[in-house]
Structure formats: C-alpha cells, structure tokens
C-alpha cells in the first residue's frame, strides 16, 4: 500500500493559470473500453442537487471510458460531450489507477462546472464541490513511486455550462492535461493488479 502525504497547498487560480488550451475535441469519454484509462460510471441525479451524490446509493445508467479529462467550459446546449444530449442533473464517478515512476511533489489542478472532487489513494486531494460557474482549485502532494488509485467525482447541476479539466505538473514542470497513458507502468513493471 502506498501512502500519499495530505495536500500541502489548496488554492484558487484561473483556468489559464492551471490548464493548457484545449487542442482536441472536448469529451467526458466514449463507450469504447480503455482498460488503462479512467472508467466513468454515469448517474442521473435529482433536480436541484447542490453537491456530489453518494454514489454508493445510486445505480449507474451507463459507463464511459477516457484517458484524459479535458472538457473546457462549454455551453450546455452542446449536451453531454461524447455520450448523449444530456446537459444537466447528471454525475460521473471516474476511477482508475496510475503509475508514478519518479517520486516527489506533484501539483494537480481541477477545473469544474459544477462540483468535482479529486481523490488519490482514497484521500480527498481537491474539493471543488457545489453548484458554481467554472472554478479551478489546485493542490500539491507528494507521491511515492508505484501504483496509485485515482477517483474524480463530478456532477453537473443546472444548465448554462459544463466543464471538467484535470491537469498535473511535476516538480519544475509546466502544467499539462493529466493523461493516463503518460502515467502507465514502465515495460516489465509490476503494476500491482
């Protein structure tokens, strides 16, 4: 079992400070299975929900897969990018595992509209919950080498915009979209499965 040091820094910043510009089609995921990526279970949530639901009390209505979360603020009329025309009152619980080859300090940035939380090894690293316009929160934590569990819980409340971007920066590195393919185990490594 690997340990994560509790977050060391939690703050606010603009989307431009924490995330690079989007250079691909914005999607929450697709129905194509990506075993090394994130699995996102989709849930209907009650209208007027003001925070993330307790996923254990809900039954998923579908599943999507992705290696990145890069949905910049998008008008609700565009629907639920990559899946359906749904635009409000849904939640997605993404789960996966990633590999850290170089231990040390990593900064994570989570932009969302509406609420989202980032968990690493079952610890809340970023809490960006609640109904709000696109808002970015940043945290820094130390990670050991090896496999780590990741979970990103997200919900979209009332219409206007949807957004969900997870970015990362290692020590001395520039911000980039967190890509599960980049954080896969090296060839021949025991990935802890």
Short structural description:
The chain is mainly β and 193 residues long.
Output the keywords.
Jelly Rolls; mainly beta; single chain; globular; 193 residues; 6-stranded antiparallel β-sheet
Verbal overview:
It is a single chain. Helices cover 2% and strands 45% of the residues. It has 193 residues and is an all-beta fold. It has one domain: Sandwich (Jelly Rolls), CATH 2.60.120. The strands form two sheets. Strands 1, 4, 6, 9, 11 and 12 form a six-stranded antiparallel beta sheet that branches. A six-stranded antiparallel beta sheet has the order 3-2-5-10-7-8, with no helix packed on it. The two termini are 12 Å apart.
**Average predicted local confidence, pLDDT:** 82
Summarize the amount of helix as a percent range.
under 10%
Counting DSSP E segments of at least 2 residues, the number of strands comes to 12
CATH class: Mainly Beta
* Rough outline: globular
CATH architectural name: Sandwich
Calculate the terminal CA-CA distance, rounded to whole Å.
12 Å
Summed up, the domain count is 1
Q: Give the helix tally.
A: 1
Order of helices and strands: EHEEEEEEEEEEE
Q: Which residues sit in consecutive blocks of at least 5 with pLDDT less than 50?
A: 1-26
Oligomer kind: single chain
Structural class by SSE content: mainly beta
Largest sheet: 6 strands, antiparallel
Share of residues in strands: over 45%
């Amino acid at each position: 079992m690997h340990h994560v040091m509790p977050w060391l820094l939690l703050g606010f910043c603009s989307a431009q400070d924490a995330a690079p510009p989007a250079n691909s089609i914005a999607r929450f995921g697709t129905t194509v299975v990506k075993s090394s990526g994130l699995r996102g279970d989709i849930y209907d949530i009650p209208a007027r929900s003001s925070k993330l639901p307790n996923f254990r009390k809900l039954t998923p209505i579908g599943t999507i897969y992705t290696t990145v979360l890069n949905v910049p603020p998008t008008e609700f009329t565009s629907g639920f990018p990559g899946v359906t025309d749904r635009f409000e009152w849904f939640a997605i619980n993404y789960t996966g595992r990633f590999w850290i080859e170089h231990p040390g300090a990593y900064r994570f940035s989570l932009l969302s509209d509406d609420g989202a939380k980032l968990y690493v090894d079952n610890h809340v690293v970023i809490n960006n919950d609640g109904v709000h316009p696109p808002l970015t929160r940043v945290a820094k934590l130390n990670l050991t080498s090896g496999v780590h569990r990741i979970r990103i819980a997200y919900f979209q409340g009332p219409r206007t915009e949807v957004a969900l971007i997870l970015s990362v920066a290692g020590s001395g590195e520039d911000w980039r979209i967190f890509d599960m393919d980049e954080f896969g185990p090296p060839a021949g490594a025991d990935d802890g499965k």
